[in-house]
Write a structure and sequence with these properties.
two-stranded parallel ribbon; mainly alpha; single chain
């Protein structure tokens, strides 16, 4: 009987893993059809000019970042990488595609790294990974992935920084679980990633510090014994202060002031309003169904993500902590923009963060049910009910028109349609033609490109170079290609 159960578990794990790979194929493949857009031209140009001025990309990128820190924003890691890496300037579209592919793979790997640290059972890990990926790319609002996965600047500022934050969390969890030299190594790595992750958008800085603080609270017994475990949190907070206190943040926020939304008190109120508005979209029927599957799978497979017993008090603390982390993730954005509304890339990032936190909460909830011995008190009836609920949730996921409708408008579905229809190829061909035209244009000239036709896709961003040669993107592109002006005209 044990052998049969083991085989079934392995089969389920393999099937779920294959489903995850199939679901993610078009999303990952889409990075190979991306191109520079909007702010990308400015950072590519700025990084190149800084390297030429200071005779070093390392030093030049530092001074360019310092200038932005003074006048615009404090996200030091993201700004430095934008100027330092500049893949298109270094190697054209092939290098650009490599960078975008690497960032996407790193994000997926980081999610898996954290989940693997929490979950040892292979089948449970496969289910949790599927839940995480469909939460990030297959639900309401995930179409905003265009701005944080296929737009280079958005990717570096948000998802790459969140990737670093997840590495911070993963290494910190391993530092707590291990001892000796291995624990020290994990602690050092966690501290380095913590400082780097705090140098992203303040939305990411907030969740980076929040995740570390949450782990410290949950593992308070071990932290009391080994005080050095708080070092990654200290590094994260140092980075956060450097980021928050940037003079550029204060200049920028003054430009966006709205009456009735100026103060911190206003921001606290506005964040609550924004939080509940977005929560309705985050906890869509598909997300609730996935959470039920994770909870029941965790119970059936005996998953334990916390080393100590989850009491009802600890469960309440976990629930309050998860929702507090979600709240404080969007607080910097609401306060910074002074309105009860999130921008597109912030919304897309927040949906991913909030849903991943709900997946973790589901795992903790499943452990609470196990630790409370509710199932043991009901003998086999509780186990049968759990299996029945899991079966119903899976069936609902497969046949429900509601779930199908949500998924059909998701980032996964959009990338699949673009890949299948050939739209990815069509759009890339046109954008490559535009870029090549400007690259070959005479230096200092007014480059005007007449496109006979243009097309778009469901998941790729717009390049941003239009008919107004004075538009900021046109000007940035002109500077990158060393032209006087750039213009794209379409009949």
């Amino acid at each position: 009987m044990a052998d049969i159960t083991s085989r079934i578990k392995k089969i389920v794990g393999v099937v779920v893993a294959i489903l995850t790979i199939v679901m993610m194929f078009s999303v990952v493949a889409g990075t190979l059809y991306t191109f520079p857009a909007e702010d990308d031209f400015s950072y590519e140009c700025g990084g190149r000019d800084g390297a030429a001025e200071y005779k070093s990309s390392v030093i030049g990128s530092f001074y360019k970042t310092l200038n932005i820190y003074r006048v615009q924003q404090g996200c030091y890691t993201a700004m430095y990488l934008d100027h330092m890496v500049r893949p298109y300037n270094r190697g054209g579209l092939p290098a650009f595609h490599v960078a975008m592919l690497v960032y996407m793979v790193l994000f997926i790997f980081a999610v898996g790294f954290v989940l693997r640290t929490l979950i040892k059972d292979n089948t449970a890990f496969a289910i949790a990974m599927f839940a995480a990926m469909i939460s990030c790319f297959g639900m309401t609002g995930s179409s905003g992935g265009t701005m944080i996965f296929y737009w280079y600047t958005g990717n570096v500022g948000y998802m790459l920084m969140f990737t670093l934050a997840m590495f911070t969390t993963g290494f910190f969890l391993r530092a707590i679980k291990n001892e000796g030299k291995k624990a020290i190594l994990y602690l050092v790595l966690s501290s380095v990633f913590a400082f780097l992750a705090s140098g992203g958008s303040l939305v990411i800085t907030s969740i980076n510090c929040s995740m570390l603080l949450a782990i410290i609270i949950l593992a308070s017994d071990k932290v009391r014994v080994s005080k050095i475990l708080i070092i990654p949190f200290i590094f994260a907070m140092i980075g956060a202060f450097i980021n928050v206190l940037a003079p550029g943040n204060f200049q920028r926020t003054q430009n966006d002031l709205n009456e009735g939304h100026e103060t911190v008190v206003d921001a606290v109120r506005d964040t609550f309003q924004c939080y509940f508005i977005e929560l309705k979209k985050i906890a869509d029927p598909l997300m609730v169904t996935v959470m039920v599957i994770v909870i029941t799978a965790g119970i059936i497979l005996g998953v334990k993500v916390i080393s100590k017993k989850v009491t009802w008090k600890l469960m309440l603390i976990s629930i309050a902590g998860i929702f507090a982390m979600q709240y404080f993730t969007i607080f910097p954005a609401v306060f910074g923009y002074h309105r009860v509304q999130l921008t597109g890339h912030v919304t897309a990032s927040y949906y991913i963060i909030a849903r991943l936190l709900l997946i973790v909460l589901s795992l903790i909830f499943s452990q609470w049910i196990q630790d409370s011995a509710l199932l043991e008190k009901t003998n086999n009836i509780g186990k049968m009910i759990t299996i029945g609920v899991a079966a119903i949730a899976i069936l609902f996921l497969i046949i429900s028109p509601t779930c199908h409708s949500i998924y059909s408008d998701s980032f996964c579905a959009r990338t699949y349609r673009d890949l299948r229809s050939g739209r990815f190829n069509e759009v890339l061909a046109i954008r490559e033609y535009e870029l090549t035209y400007f690259e070959l244009a005479e230096e200092g000239s007014d480059a005007i490109l007449y496109l006979q036709w243009d097309t778009g896709s469901e998941s790729l961003p717009a390049m941003g170079i239009g008919s107004d040669c004075e538009w900021i993107v046109n000007r940035s592109a002109a500077n990158l290609f060393k032209l006087h002006t750039t213009t794209v005209l379409i009949p």
